[in-house]
Write a structure and sequence with these properties.
Layout lengths: L3 H15 L5 H16 L6 H22 L3 H44 L9
Helix pairs in contact: 2-3, 2-4, 3-4
């Protein structure tokens, strides 16, 4: 009887791994965030591009794990993919904000140059 307890525990663990549900929602979330990062200009921002590429590789790895019925490992890989995609999106967005701020500063400088001394400016 004592020898069968470890065997039952091992079988229980194996059955638990096999019955882990496919991480379909995590896959969709990771892909959606990756698409958002691409559309935000991540491929043009070196650091964002790096994290975007990592996210894509992790999604592909998760797909392979799911094909092998290793859904739990795939779920963790998709968490990493989502985190990298989120980081890529944040970096691309931050760069877009920096570019817009530089443009606004340039516009302000041009406007200041065009105003004559003593000229009143109305909004």
């Amino acid at each position: 009887m004592l020898r069968s307890i470890p065997a039952l525990a091992t079988l229980g663990l194996l059955a638990g791994c096999a019955s882990y549900p496919a991480p379909v929602q995590r896959m969709a979330d990771a892909q959606s965030t990756t698409t958002a990062a691409e559309q935000s200009g991540a491929p043009e921002v070196p650091q964002a591009e790096l994290h975007l590429q990592l996210a894509k590789e992790e999604i592909n790895h998760a797909r392979a794990l799911m094909m092998d019925k290793e859904n739990e490992r795939a779920a963790y890989m998709l968490l990493r993919a989502r985190a990298d995609a989120d980081l890529s999106l944040a970096e691309a967005t931050a760069e877009n904000v920096r570019v817009a701020a530089r443009k606004a500063q340039g516009d302000i400088a041009e406007l200041r140059k065009s105003i004559q001394p003593g000229q009143e400016v109305t909004p």
